[in-house]
Each structure stands twice: as C-alpha cells, then as structure tokens.
Fold these 2 entries.
Entry 1:
Amino acid sequence: MTRLLEVRNVSKRFNMGGLLSRKSVNAVVDAGFALNSETPEIFTIIGESGSGKTTLARMILGLERPSAGDILFDGQSTDTVRSRAERLAFMRKVQPVFQNPFETFNPLKKVDRYLYTSARMLLGAKTEAEQEKAIDGALQKVGLSLKEIKGRFAHELSGGQLQRVAIARALITEPSLLIADEPVSMVDASLRMSIVNLLRDLRDRLGVCVIYITHDLATAYYISDRLMIMQKGYIVEMGPARAILDNPEHPYSKLLKASVLPIDDAGHGNLEPADRSVANAAWSSAGSGAMQERADGRLVRG
Ligand SMILES: Nc1ncnc2c1ncn2[C@@H]1O[C@H](COP(=O)(O)OP(=O)(O)OP(=O)(O)O)[C@@H](O)[C@H]1O
C-alpha cells in the first residue's frame, strides 16, 4: 500500500511570554496516522475548541513546523520542502480550504482573480485560454462555471457559492489531498449539507483524499470514512467513523457524543450541539496512556 500521508509521532509546543514569564502550550502531542493513496477517504478530525485540530492541519500544510516527529507526503518529509519550486510542487498536491469564505476572499477583489492567480502561479498555465480552461474545469467540479462567477465580488455570491469557489480554487491543481478546516461552520445551515456532499463527491469522482476538520458530529457521521477524536492535543480515539460514533469507547468520545443532537439529525441542517457543558466537563479527563488496538481496528487511548 502506498502512503499518501504519514504523520509520525508529531508534537507541537508553542512557547509564549518573555524570559521571566515563560509559558508553553502542548497543542499537539504525539499524533500519528496515515492516509493511503489507493483508498481515497474522508478522514475527519473532531474535537472541542483548542484540542489541536488546526495546529495539526497547519503542520501538514507546512505552515507550522512540528516540535517533534515527522510528516511525510508521498514518502518525502515535508521538512525537506525548502526551495520555492519544492514548495509550489507540494502546494499543487496538498490544498487547504478554510473556514470562512468571506475572509478567504478580499471584498475589494473580484473572486475570479484568485482563481487566475492559482492557475498561473501554482498550475503554471501561461496563456489566458489555458488558465480559463483549468478554472472552468475546477468550477464545473463544484457545480459552477467561470461564466457564472466572472467579474463578481464576494458579497455578490452566497456563502455556499463562495465556499464552492474556494473549493474550486483548491481543485485547480488537481490535488491528491484537501485539508478542509471547518469548511461549513460559516455557511448557512441550509447549505451545509450541499458542501459536505460536495466533499464526498470529490472523494468518489476524483479520488481526492479529504481531511475534514470539524466540531460537528452530525456531518462527521454523515461523510467520514475514518474519524480521529482529539482532546487537549491528544488523539483519544481513532478508527472507522460510524463504529466510533455509534459506540464510542473513550470517556471523552462518549461525552462528546452525549453533548450533541442525535445522529439521526445528520443531513437535516440542525447541527448545533445541544449541550456543550457535558463535553466541556470531559476536558478534565484527558488521558495520556498508550493507544490500544481493538478488534474492529479502532485505537483507543488507555
Ligand atoms: N500560534 C500559537 N501560539 C500559541 N498558542 C497557540 C498557537 N496556535 C494555537 N495555539 C494553542 O494551541 C492549542 C490548540 O489550538 P488549535 O487552534 O490547534 O485548536 P483547535 O482544535 O483547532 O481549536 P478550534 O476548533 O477553536 O479552531 C490552543 O490552546 C491554542 O490556544
């Protein structure tokens, strides 16, 4: 099996403050998982605010360096991606989709400019015709066309359309891995499922692997193949998504599930946690024991 991504014992510690008031935060502690090229999947990272999801994503994207451990993409350590050419080659294969499409796009800039820039800089498309072909192809994959969005500003598009444009921008280089950090949290509830379904479509039609980062168990249940639950920087449970969400084992996973609406609500637009206080109570029970393997393939922290 060929590894697309391998995260090996990765930790990130942020040091803050001056010499006299030095503080540090262990944002990610000894994280490990792998994605294979042959089986494109939606690998979901879930956890409460501050559990380390974004820091882990930023390390995979090469935006943050691990304090320990190694991240390999296509067998090559991302730490060795140094020159501009190497960085561009890496960015062609690994693309981010961020949370807030209204922040991704400058309100004073036409949204198509972002697409032209990606086609020119990342894909290396030289002529306008080449760029437009790549852009229109990417927009078609998300159910839009260049004709529809050309010359328009962010405020002239809905949140859902704008997030589709953001995903199209990420698709221009035909990446093998998309890292979508809370891609639906700023989108209207009524449009969320269409974005979530789009991610699933990209996996099925284009064979793109997706790392889907969310707080939301309902959409996670709906689209994930595998799931990783993080608490205070630690992975506490990881494995087949439905098995974990149907029958969580780690105390934090159980409490997280208990704090949200029934899983039957997935796909009905009502995705807000019912009671965050239950999950918040589990913050105090972060475990640092070893991961133990279960018969169904899941790993649970002891
Ligand atoms: N640049 C930074 N400097 C200092 N601390 C940071 C930095 N980035 C993140 N942290 C801290 O690391 C921890 C993990 O943060 P992170 O943003 O990765 O969590 P998260 O699970 O993505 O949260 P959210 O769901 O709110 O985005 C938090 O305690 C956060 O305050």
Entry 2:
Amino acid sequence: MNSPTDAPVLSVSHFQKRYGDTIAVRDLSLTVEPGDIYGFIGHNGAGKTTLIRSIVGVQPIDGGSIHVAGIDVTADPVAAKRLCAYVPDNPDVYDFMTGLQYLTFIADIFEVPVRDRQARIEEYAPRLELTDALASPIASYSHGMRQKLVVIGALIHEPRLLVLDEPFVGLDPLAAHELKAMLHELAARGGAVFFSSHVLEVVEKLCNKVAIIRHGQIVAAGTTDEVRGDDTLEEVFLELVEDGGAGTGAMGKPAPSSPSEHR
Ligand SMILES: Nc1ncnc2c1ncn2[C@@H]1O[C@H](COP(=O)(O)OP(=O)(O)OP(=O)(O)O)[C@@H](O)[C@H]1O
C-alpha cells in the first residue's frame, strides 16, 4: 500500500446530502486514520448508507468534501476509487459469471498481478468456505455466498480503505468470525475499515472508533472507549438516539468530541 500523502485514509468534512427537499445528512465530519476499524451506527434512515455511497463515489455529494488518502473523491474520482473497496448491503453481482470470473474481473479492473490475485483467492476463499463454489455461476449462489464473494473481491486488490454497509447481515457465524479477523488483518497492515452496523455488540468489540448518527447528524464520535464511557455501547446508543443527544454524550456527559470534527 503506497501512500501518496500522510493524509488520513478517510476525511469527511462538512458533508451534506439531500434528496429533493429532504436533507438526509448535514454538516457531517469525521476522520479515519490508518489502522482504524471505524463503526458507524444509527437508526433506520439515519443517513449511514447515504454517507457510505458518497464515500465510495456511487452518488454525488451536495456540500462539504470527502477525501480518501488526500484525494478528493469529487475532483479525482478514479484515483480515489482505486484506493477503496466497497461491500454494499445488497451484494448485487453479475449472475451470468462464475465466482472465479467475477474475482478475475475485479482483479483485472484493479490491475492486480496474477500471482497476487491467486494468492489472495487461495487465502480468502477457503476461510469463507467458498472455494468449491467458485466454479459455479453466481446465479446459483445464496445471499450469504454472494456476500462472501463480494468480500473476497474487495480484499483482492488490498484496498487502503474498505467500506462495508451492514457486512454481518446474512453471514453464518464462521464467516462472520473470519470477516472480523480479515478486517483486523487489513487494519494491522495499515489499511482502514469503515462500516455501518446495527449489531452493537460487534461494533463494540471490533471497532477502536465509533460514530453515532441521528437524523443525518453525528451525535457522538470518538474512540469506542470514549463514546461508551462506563456504559455499554447499546446503552449509550439508546440514550442518544431516544433523547436527541446532539451536543451531549452518553448519560449527560459532555460529547466525546466536537460535532464539527470527529476523529
Ligand atoms: N434515493 C433516495 N431518494 C430519496 N430519499 C432517500 C434516498 N435514499 C435515502 N433516502 C432518505 O435519506 C434518509 C437516509 O437514508 P439512508 O439509507 O442513508 O439511511 P440508513 O441509515 O442507511 O438506514 P438503514 O439503517 O435503514 O439502512 C432516509 O430518510 C431515506 O428515506
């Protein structure tokens, strides 16, 4: 992973997104550093997918800026996309390909050398119990198998930033366990992970940093220890989401970091 700059892996600054007259996300800022596993939690419709889709460049942004490793995703979208991998909540992959054809297609797009792509497939496919299925058409895959395939496709090009939307939904316990290990390994190699989840126990255990979003605005963010204080993440989440919470942290304590810049 060659770093063009010393910039954070992900920097979101005063991001805003509207759909028609509705502002889905407003004035959202956060920073993800190398080695971070950053959890993004919020109620249904809070704005998680909206931010994620703008980070990975599948929808434009209406205000503020997003940089991946110092590259502006709006000004230089292809360069930013080269550094990112995206695992969407709905793994919509080409049905007519086999799993191996799909992985080869992704590796070709990202110009992954043949030796590297083979080594990564040989490592990740057995861990996710997908090796035998790789020769079969994706049309025959279950939802979970598609999800595993997209995860391998994301890791095949060793992304600087791995962005996942609800990655643990639909995965069996072994695959969920392996995915957590893979996220740790990517972070340990200097990459970073940013993912949304409703599974607060997983976020609490897995993530060194967390942000809570409510109605399009961050109400708490910081290290997981800072955000939860002496409580569980679930307790903090419920209190902040039920009470509105903007400007205060859990249990009436000051917010872990300022609403304008969350690290
Ligand atoms: N394409 C769209 N057109 C209009 N409104 C949208 C669109 N996508 C999202 N929204 C609205 O934007 C807000 C944020 O939606 P978003 O999908 O980002 O939430 P979320 O936090 O990912 O929710 P969930 O946990 O249910 O996946 C919601 O009010 C939603 O109705």
